[in-house]
Amino acid sequence: MTICQPRANRRVRVGQDHAVEIDGRDVTAAGVAGRRAAGIAYVPEDRAHTGTALRASATDTLSMGFHGRAPLSRRGVLDRAAMRRRARDLIARFGVKIPGEDVAVGTLSGGNLQKVVVARELDHQAPVLIAEQPTRGVDVGAIEFIHKRLIAMRDQGKAVLVVSVELDEIRSLSDRILVMFAGRIVGERGSDATEGELGLLMAGVERQEAAE
């Protein structure tokens, strides 16, 4: 598995003890709600079971995780009109093929379901984005659009961590590439790394051997 991290961000710190801080707040042991509140957006690898609730409408799905804050809620009460407006806007901007925002996302193709998850997480401009296989199953045009959005987030100073097995995607997006094998990092390379170097590291060849 290859991890790409476009540009380090001073707002995020990972200590030698593996503690993770965002703006000085330790989120290592925080739950999902705590990490959301700290400013982490997340595109999971499993879009059907982790990223969405398949029986929920596009409106509800596109609001999940962010529904407790303005403009989607006011004084703890959901603003359904605001949720629908936002859902229609994201559906249009990300090219989701769906009859309407009240349709259940479980009726969508895998690629369109992926667009829904990516649209929800990228739109909030969180200071930290973790994206696992963000373009899997989407069309070529959508891949280019998602890549541009990830790079735009990086250029705005956001911390972006992309996990992917697509070497072309990794090399085109990354400032730093970390390669994992058997649960540990076996090497770090720049975006100019060759496919051969990365392939050897992905096979578990240590950094000195891969560089030769």
Chain-wise SSE layout:
Layout: E1 2-5, E2 12-14, E3 20-22, E4 25-26, H1 32-38, E5 40-43, H2 58-61, E6 73-74, E7 77-78, H3 80-93, H4 110-123, E8 128-132, H5 140-155, E9 159-164, H6 167-173, E10 176-181, E11 184-190, H7 195-202, H8 207-211
Parallel strand pairs: 5-8, 8-9
Antiparallel strand pairs: 1-9, 1-10, 2-3, 3-4, 6-7, 10-11
Task: Explain what this protein looks like in three dimensions.
The protein has helices at residues 32-38, 58-61, 80-93, 110-123, 140-155, 167-173, 195-202, 207-211; strands at 2-5, 12-14, 20-22, 25-26, 40-43, 73-74, 77-78, 128-132, 159-164, 176-181, 184-190. The mean pLDDT is 86. The radius of gyration is 18 Å and the shape is globular. The two termini are 21 Å apart. A hairpin with a 2-residue loop joins strand 3 (20-22) and strand 4 (25-26). By secondary structure, it is α+β, with helices and mostly antiparallel strands. The strands form 3 sheets. Strands 5-8-9-1-10-11 form a 6-stranded mixed beta sheet.
Provide the low-confidence segments as ranges: none
| Morphology | globular
Largest sheet: spatial strand order = 5-8-9-1-10-11
**Secondary structure tally: strands:** 11
Radius of gyration (CA) equals 18 Å
Percent of residues in beta strands: 15-25%
- H/I helix tally: 8
Question: In a nutshell, what does this entry contain?
Answer:
The chain has helices at 32-38, 58-61, 80-93, 110-123, 140-155, 167-173, 195-202, 207-211, and strands at residues 2-5, 12-14, 20-22, 25-26, 40-43, 73-74, 77-78, 128-132, 159-164, 176-181, 184-190. It has 212 residues and is of the alpha+beta class.
